[in-house]
Write a structure and sequence with these properties.
Length: 297
């Protein structure tokens, strides 16, 4: 029974995860990572590489928008910066100016940073809606210092965007702080595309190959990373369901064996009851009732 209850709870969790609103449309989104050769690329050269890549990718047919980010959605990137305060987990992501448009996040207050602010590494930040609601109740977060939330480099909050779950589905709070990207060696490109993704992937591979054949490029769909996260609770619920079914079958076999043994021991009593006028259905009800009593208890 415990395993059955656990299986039902896990199945409910998997169904809830499948219906969870992540805050953006993952279909048509792709992540492009580049592994630069050691010793041949530094920050400025990586910046130049990504500038050329962005220009050429945006010119490809089917590409709606593209931007750079240190932690693309559902990439499993270990570079995500996590801050904990007041039992809070805040995902810190350094991004390009067009990241919010590419993902489809709405600007709820203020504005997002500009390409000029990204190039100048301006001390500005954009926070998620949930973070603004929890840390600035009854206040306007725009214009507030980021130090009221996080310890570290000083920055000013210039905007609030809609919530988006980009790391783990088990963390629906999705509190996030976005700042202009600095480390271009750790950057990845996020592309919003329309139409056939398979045809576009081939075009993207050719485009990056033409920029520098020595740079290893990986292209993945954001929806694949999301599906992997959705598969985890589904697999757990399926495994728990199978274990529960096996446990239930073993319990039924054991109950049948005990009932058969007890019935054999009560054969003389049953004969006396029938001799005194008990019908077969009466005897059956008696045996079933006595067998199910410990189950109900």
């Amino acid at each position: 029974m415990v395993l059955l209850v656990l299986a039902v709870l896990l199945a409910r969790g998997a169904a809830h995860a499948a219906r969870l609103d992540i805050g953006f449309d993952a279909s048509g989104l792709m992540t492009i990572s580049a592994v630069f050769q050691r010793g041949t690329y530094d920050g400025p050269r990586a910046q130049a590489y990504w500038d050329v890549a962005l220009e050429r990718v945006r010119a490809l047919p089917g590409v709606q928008s593209s931007a750079l980010a240190e932690v693309p959605p559902f990439s499993g990137n270990s570079r995500v910066t996590v801050f904990r305060r007041a039992r809070y987990t805040i995902n810190h992501n350094d991004t390009h100016a067009g990241y919010f448009e590419t993902l489809g996040l709405r600007v709820l207050a203020g504005r997002t940073y500009t390409p000029a602010e990204v190039s100048a590494h301006a001390p500005v930040a954009v926070i998620s809606e949930g973070l603004a609601r929890d840390f600035f109740p009854g206040e306007k977060p725009v214009g507030q210092p980021l130090g009221r939330i996080l310890e570290g480099p000083q920055a000013t909050i210039i905007g609030v965007v809609s919530n988006a779950i980009t790391a783990r589905l088990r963390d629906p709070r999705a509190a996030a702080v976005y700042q202009p990207i600095r480390d271009m060696l750790a950057a990845r490109m996020v592309v919003r595309a329309s139409g056939s993704s398979e045809a576009l992937i081939k075009s993207l591979q050719s485009t990056f190959q033409s920029i520098d054949p020595g740079v290893r490029v990986g292209i993945t769909k954001v929806s694949d990373g999301l599906d992997r996260q959705l598969a985890e609770p589904t697999a757990l619920s399926t495994m728990a369901g199978l274990l529960a079914a096996v446990a239930l079958a073993l319990a039924l076999i054991g109950l049948y064996g005990v009932t058969a043994f007890v019935t054999g021991q009560r054969r003389q009593e049953i004969s006396v009851r029938i001799a005194l006028g008990a019908s077969g259905s009466d005897v059956m009800r008696l045996l079933v009732r006595d067998s199910l009593r410990p189950v109900l208890y």
